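Proteins fold reproducibly. Take a tokenised chain:

. . .
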Amino acid sequence: MNSLNVFSYIKPELIALLAIDLVIAIILLSAMRLVSGLWAKVNTTEELSHKDNFAFGISMAGSIIAMGIVLTGAITGEAANSYLVEAIGVASYGLAGLILIKVGRYIHDKVSLNKINKVEAIRAENVAVAIVDAAAVISTAIIIRAVLLWVEGINIYTLVAVLTGFAVSQTVLVAVTRIREKNYASNNQDASFQEALQHGQIAVAIRHAGHMLATAFAVKAASYFLIYEPTSIVTNLVGWISISLIMTVLIFILNKIARHIILMGVDTTVEVDQQDNIGVAAAEFAIVVSIALILTALMA
């Protein structure tokens, strides 16, 4: 009886709004398959079911998860004034997220991993490159979602704020990739991090994926400290960059301490970089992401 009483309070208008949100969400999630195919210049059905290209499947899965994350920022659960307003709002945020995910992937292709042709590598079933690609789009989506929840309303200032947050996210993600490259070279006699990925070292890819996701949570934490001021574009930009860098450094330090304690007696450089030990890499992934999640929760 109690459950029936609960359902009696649900208004038909709310059910209709939820239906609208779900329909738009499914359409946009489906669109990510099309976008992934266009990006890789392949027939998605051929790659997934006939060639059994695991790398393409991982890359596409990252895109779908990224779209889902962005949509959680657009679908807040608050009833709009009308069905049309709700549909336009969710679709606008969703399409903006899809475009930014695509732009973020382009930046990652041309700047972060500028020595790798990711499209060719994924078509050639390079799982390591696919893992990094998926982590990159998911990291971008986490930050876009944080900005969508931070801003208020839909206007030109909202667009500027979202683009500002996106620019900060890509800057920090590129910086972290360069730092990881230098760290890899210093630990492996100047060996190339990007060549390791090109050669299919999955352990290296998993560890790097963890650092990218942790960085995304660091940038996300900036939204907890900044008050949304539509006209304060420069202040917003400086605030996002400053707090993001501080949080990234803090996560790096805490991760280093935690890794030495949790993986005591394990030479992670030898195991991951030289022996391609996926188990140790997974543990490193879990540690850095857990540290980022905990620190972000504390900041909130």
Notes: The mean pLDDT is 85. The chain is about 80% helix and 0% strand. Residues 130 and 196 are 13 Å apart (CA to CA). The radius of gyration is 21 Å.
